[in-house]
Amino acid sequence: MARIVLTDASPLIGLSLVDGLPWLAALFGEVWMPEEVRNEVLSGSGFPGEQAIREAMATGWLRVWSQPVGDLPLPDLDEGEAACIRVAMGHAGESLVLMDERAGRASALEMGLQVAGTAAVIGMAKTRGLVASARDVFSALHQSDFRISAEVIRMVLTRVGE
Known about the structure:
Layout: E1 4-7, H1 9-17, H2 21-28, E2 31-34, H3 35-41, H4 50-59, E3 62-65, H5 79-89, E4 95-98, H6 102-110, E5 114-116, H7 118-127, H8 134-143, H9 150-159
Parallel strand pairs: 1-4, 2-3, 4-5
Helix pairs in contact: 3-5, 7-9
Protein name: DUF3368 domain-containing protein
InterPro entries: PIN-like_prokaryotic
Organism: Candidatus Accumulibacter contiguus
């Protein structure tokens, strides 16, 4: 298991919409987000999951990575994605990056990093017995404006036996 788990904004937002943030704590213990990600998810815009993210931070398992993140050039990525990758590169071989965006995932994988997305976390939660039905979670997530491709959902559901 990775010793350092870093998350971009999208998994935090998606999981917060289905009351799934506690799954991150159960699966990984401690989860880190760079300051750039914190600024994105706690922008004060009032999206539905913002309070859940604040509560996760208050409990202490969701933490802000405030150490320098390096200066590896990643011009095609947003600030949060780039910061996650930079931190992970400083801990290559012992980190897992939670990220959904295609370009960010491709860059991270190209650099040899371990990557998982929101769908994979839902699958892990099902495998560990944290949720009764991954299909129900995907259905609830689909009711929001958060989207995961049907192909990815099918792959996860097959993997977890649903």
